[in-house]
Structures are given as structure tokens and as C-alpha cells.
Amino acid sequence: MGLAPDWWLSPWVLGVLGLAIGSFLNVVIHRLPQLLEREWLADAAAYLQDGEAIGRVLGSSEPRRAELARQGEALASEVAALPALSLARPRSRCPHCGHQLAWHENLPLLGWLRLGGRCSACQARISVRYPVVEALTGALFAAAAWQAGPSAAAAVYCAALALLVAAAFIDLDTTLLPDDLTLPLIGLGLVAAWLRWTPVSLPDAALGAFFGYFSLWAVAFAYRLVRGVQGMAEGDFKLLAGLGALLGWQALPAIILLSSAVGAVVGIFMIVARGHGRNVPIPFGPYLAGGGVAALFFGTRLGGLWPGF
């Protein structure tokens, strides 16, 4: 006798699945920026070797173009010589001694606890972030199952939460919000609304994506006109567009209000208490992701933060 479908979408099952997904997200958070930066360096190397493009942009002399081409060739060789890397290979290993983790050492949450937060080979400390990401993802998956019940919406919200966790931590580390995470979030919200897997209508999802992107674009454009510098990256626009597609345009004011308020408080604290340079960018993605998670779970109550919505 098979298990009822409701069981597979229960908070317990999705919570355990979230622990496993969180373990994979640790790999994504660590490796995806490296993969993207390798790709960008390879593109830069190819561009340096494009004498016609260099001439059009810089108007450089033939010796200068030849010098840049040699630099491009050297850079391309360095990138090509890097060890093979993907999200699947090589297997997880200690960054200090290279010890390859056994299956039991790689168990979500339990592996870190069993090892006492240290590598079994060299005893170097293993960052507490790994179990935090796993536990956070598991808790969010369980909360999504509890919030949406045994429905397609629970699966949609879990997928969205996984993208948000990865995007937030990558932005925190590198100030990058990869298209590989933000664009799928937009597509997920639109498709889920189209198939009626979530309570958001397709017009509301489409408007959410549109207003999510262009509201932050307008703020960044105005800031650039006034201050002459870029105040926000395009990844932030796409992330808010994804949240708008997932939750509908009605959720955008609360998300923006929450993320801006928390971001301002944290930014002031870092400048005043930690001596953070005013010209050093502070990633906004984690605050947007946090605002989106709050809107997902407490949307109706958060509506009161913005009169009229």
C-alpha cells in the first residue's frame, strides 16, 4: 500500500528534504560565483585578443593591440589550466587539507555535529555556516509545507526559498546576484501563476515582475543622476522582479519597506560601529530575500505596514 500524497508534502518530509537541499545549496553558494568568474575571465581574455574590437574602443596602435593580445592569451592559458570545477565535481573536500569527505561526514547537519565542527583529517575548523544554511533551508521548507498545506504551492514555495537562500548568501559573500538564480525565480512565479499552483493570478504575477524590476531601476537611475554613481546593481532589480512574480505586485510595497528599513539600520551600524567604508558597497540582496520570505509567510499582516495595500 503506497503512502498518501499528503504525506510526501508534510512539514516533516519537506523539512528533511530541505536539510538535504541546504547541503547542496552550500555547494552552490561556494562554487557558482567561481564558475561565473571563470567564465567572465575567459570572456575578457577572448576580448583582449580581438584586435578589431580593441581598435574600435581604444584606437590603440598595432604594438599596443599586440601587447593586449599577448596578455589575453596568457590569461586564457591560466584560466584553462585551473582544475575542473562544476556543481557536481569534484566531491566535497576540506578546503585546508583537501581531505575528501566520506558520505557520513557529508550528512546534512548531522555530519557537522558528529565531527564537532572540525575536519576529521587535519582538525581545521569547518565553518558554522554549513549547518546554518542546512538548518535554515530545512526550517523554511517545513514552514512552507505548514503554510500551504499538501499542495503544489508548497512545492513552488520550497523551490523559491531554495533560490532565495542561495542568492542571499552569494550576494553576502561576493555582492553578486547571479542570473542563474534570479531569472529562474521570475520564471517560477509566472509559470506557477499560469498553472494556478499559487493563489496569485497571472496578471498580478506579471505586474509584480514588471513593477519589481522597474521600481528599483527607477530608484537606481535617479540616484545615479543625483550622485553620479551606481547605487544598486541589476541583480537586485531581477530579484525583486522574481519576488513580485511569485507573490504578486501587492506584496512589493511591504517587501521594499522591510528590506529598506533593515538595510538602512544594518548599514548605519556597519559604518558607525564597524568602520565600514561609505564607498564600499553593502549587498542589498539578503534584505530583499528576507523581505520576500516575510511577505510569503506573513503577507496579510505585513499589508498593514503600507496603508492602502
Question: Could you give a quick summary of the protein structure above?
Answer:
With 309 residues, the protein is mostly helical. It contains 12 helices and no strands.
Task: Characterise this structure.
This protein has 309 residues and is mostly helical. The chain has a domain at 152-305. It contains twelve helices and no strands. Helix 2 packs antiparallel against helix 4 and helix 6 runs antiparallel to helix 7 (152-174). The protein is globular, with a radius of gyration of 22 Å.
Short key terms for the protein model shown above:
309 residues; 0% strand; mainly alpha
User: What portion of residues is helical?
Assistant: 55-70%
Question: What coarse outline follows from CA principal-axis ratios?
Answer: globular
Tally of helical segments: 12
Supply Rg. 22 Å
Portion of residues in beta strands equals under 5%
Uncertain parts: none
Mean pLDDT: 88
Q: What is the end-to-end distance?
A: 48 Å
Q: Which structural class is indicated by helix and strand composition?
A: mainly alpha
- Tell me the number of strands: 0
Largest sheet properties: none
Order of helices and strands: HHHHHHHHHHHH
